[in-house]
Amino acid sequence: MRITFHGAARSVTGSRHLIEAAGSKILLDCGLFQGHRAEADAGNRSFGFDPGDLDVMVLSHAHIDHSGNIPNLVKQGFEGLVVSTFATRDLAAIMLPDSAHIQKQDADYLNRRNERRGEPPVEPLYDISDVTEALEHFVSIPYNRPYPLIEGVTMRFLEAGHILGSAQVELTITEGHATTTLLFSGDLGRFDRPILRDPDLRSRPDVLLMESTYGDRRHEPGESAEERLRDVITRVAGRGGKLIVPAFSVGRTQALLFHLQRLFSSGGIPEIPVFVDSPLSFDATEVYRLHPECFDEETRLLLEGPETPFRFHNLRFTQSVSDSMELNETPGPAVIISASGMCEAGRILHHLKNNVGDERNMILIVGFMAEHTLGRALAEGRREVRIFGEAYERRAEVASIDGFSAHADADELESYARKTGSGARRVILVHGEEQQCEALARRLRAAGFAVVDVPAQGDTIEIAPRGPGGT
Prior knowledge:
By secondary structure, this protein is of the alpha/beta class. The protein folds into two domains: 2-217 and 406-462, 4-Layer Sandwich (Metallo-beta-lactamase, Chain A); 222-400, 3-Layer(aba) Sandwich (Rossmann fold), CATH 3.40.50.10890. The protein has 14 helices and 22 strands. α4 packs antiparallel against α5 (128-135) and α4 packs antiparallel against α8 (279-289).
């Protein structure tokens, strides 16, 4: 078995791992790179392999850094199935068209600017017709059911607890008389968190391929995060400002709504309007309502009440462009939650452009911001930021709360590795910036794991079968 890493290797975007085993080629995830525009565009247009040579693709979850390049994969010749959970397929059916729409909007905006400057036009990576064709390749299977993926390979999805429909991918690969079990964690969620079930720890793989996003960081407790959210809203409301929150439309937005509804119902924060300015967030929240099988018991009970975590009296979803633009004239105090989560595309860019210069406002960072993104520049507190290629002075306050993260932290990642990977011959760390994955690698080696790899982009790792000569 060979594993080649074509994305999310010593980085956190563009998840793309090619498995060559049992005479077949299996792609785990096919996400978009995010970061410097030119570098990300080049990485998204070139896969590093021929999509037409793939036999099958398995999607761990619907976040765009894991799913967003599937239409381009199909456009460039992939003819196989894309296997996912039911909820992931439903989310992909709204997220991929949204991605195509955002790419077109951004290209139109940039082309108007480029025309004025005499610069060449840019082309979207794919369009809605490519998305439609890609969705025809999807097939969905439930959690915990062995599925014959291809000859010699059986697959099983296990709950990952990250976002709705997220899954760990277990591959049992038979080559000759040897059988090897590989477990891909996907993006791993946290234990005892609201809304979703906890990650499933039943697999016992020979090879553990796992994420390392927060490989050297500990999250603050959820209770502390909610208290800090209360304090932030109270402070911004007191000065009549707007709280601008970049958040992924799937996962982070719903978690924020859960905590906001709880704070409003307890009287913990002023009764100010909450706007979720993202058509995708509205659609994704509706998809959440369709999949109670993914919820924990607490959330299932809350959905039976008059006000739910996803619908409460002062919550407004804005969908049209005109409604979004009206928020620029809406006086504070108010909360505006908008996508994209790393501030690289979408309506959040317009809200930042219009609000970053007002010291009454606050930008609240509630998730991981990859290197070379606008979100990282804001999280680092830079006084000048570039939005749509133009420089803006930041006068708005910036605050960060990491307790809402849907990613396991360093302690939780080690615990996961110790339990799930207790019998693993090899641990391979992906989906983490170099500092994070190297820190987790040191930690796992100190915990007794003999072989811990941190591959770079383009690296290939050979996995020998168990038995004489095996690793």
